[in-house]
Amino acid sequence: MTENHIKIAPSLLSADFSCLGAEVKSVEEGGADYIHFDVMDGHFVPNITFGPPLIKSLRKFSSLTFDVHLMIEKPERYIEDFVKSGADIITVHVETCPHLHRTLQMIRDLGIKASVSLNPATPPFFLDYILDKLDMVLVMSVNPGFGGQKFIPSALKKVEWISSLIKESGLNIDIEIDGGIVPENVKEVVKSGCNIVVAGSSVFGKKPVSSAIKAIRDSIR
Ligand code: DX5
Ligand code: ZN
């Protein structure tokens, strides 16, 4: 896979919440491919962020793909609201979905892309019976809840495993990695088989964001 195929998804979790519209515009102009939204409920993860109204209010600032990562219990209750708010991809966590197959189908039935995420401790065999319901897999490379944490190296093996599972299946499924991505590790991360990288603190914590995105892109080469 060449660097041309790699998408960069800045996570707004590390942006300045007092001016999110401007932050979204700045990463779009700075060369981002997706905007990554981290939705947290204070139950599944020990942090609270935002919900559909905020996403809806930002929709007018960008035409990029809105990549919505739900770190919430019982996400099926809110899927429709997030679709209406302008999400293009919704990721649910396997750990929060006893009826994962149905939840993924619900997302697709609403006309957008369905994705599932695995925590660092969750084994990849959970994907075995849902592959045909997936447009993307999000591999967590930190324990979800906060930006700015250190990359957990075992995520690389997991990405390799998932990448060969997808190849064998012949399906077209993206692999996104999320947590602790910096210019120093992104090349190795991409080599393991993912084609979308989320970056929060290494984009919004290193302004101007255009240079931060460029530093990540250049490091992939
Ligand atoms: C963590 C979130 C990540 C996080 C990434 O729960 O899912 O998207 O914001 O932030 P960095 O890139 O700073 O690890
Ligand atoms: Zn995320």
**Any idea what the CATH superfamily is called?**
Aldolase class I
Strand content: 15-25%
- By CATH reckoning, the class would read Alpha Beta
The count of domains is 1
Say what the CATH topology is. TIM Barrel
What is the molecular shape? globular
Q: What is the tally of helical segments?
A: 8
Q: How confident overall, as mean pLDDT?
A: 97
The largest pleated sheet is described as: 8 strands, parallel
- Could you say which structural class the secondary elements and strand pairing correspond to? alpha/beta
- Give the strand order of the largest sheet, numbering strands 1, 2, ... along the chain: 1-8-7-6-5-4-3-2
At CATH's second level, what is the architecture?
Alpha-Beta Barrel
- Bound chemical compounds: D-xylitol-5-phosphate, zinc ion
H and E order? EHEHEHEHEEHEHEHH
Provide an overview of this structure.
It is built from 8 helices and 8 strands; from the N terminus they run E-H-E-H-E-H-E-H-E-E-H-E-H-E-H-H. Helix 2 packs parallel to helix 3. It starts with 6 loop residues before the first strand and ends with a helix. With 221 residues, it is an alpha/beta fold. It has an 8-stranded parallel sheet. The mean pLDDT is 97. It has helices spanning 20-29, 52-59, 79-85, 100-109, 154-169, 186-191, 201-204, 209-220, and strands at 7-10, 34-40, 65-71, 89-93, 113-118, 136-140, 174-178, 196-199. It has a single domain (3-220), classed as TIM Barrel, CATH 3.20.20.70. D-xylitol-5-phosphate binds next to strand 2, strand 8 and helix 7.
